[in-house]
Amino acid sequence: MTRSFDLRTVSGWFRLIALAEAVSWAGLLVGMYFKYLGTPRTEVGVKVFGPIHGGIFIAFVVGAVLVGMAHKWGVGTWILALLASIVPLGSVIFVMWADRTARLTPAAGSAGVLQPGGAVPETT
Which of 24, 36, 80, 83 lies in the 20 to 30 Å Cα band around 103? Predict the structure, then answer.
């Protein structure tokens, strides 16, 4: 596992959820294609990926709130994160942007490392 998906950090969990959200969006879009345009027409894809995507979507929004609080995001970053949750594959684009602009880097004084019993700032 790479450092980006380090599940000991809040940011690592958020990256993983963002990737899962994008994959579930893609699955739902394929399911919608077969429901409305494909041959044979079937609702199986929507019935499978709809609830999966709904749950992961909620996890992404909750994750964005937690990461935003941990990293002290400004209002603009919050708005972009919430908009990214709506746009297909926007979650991955948001995470790439947030990485490049250091918005997923821990705030000064805390590393956002998860320890048993809760988040404990890591001293450097």
Answer: 24
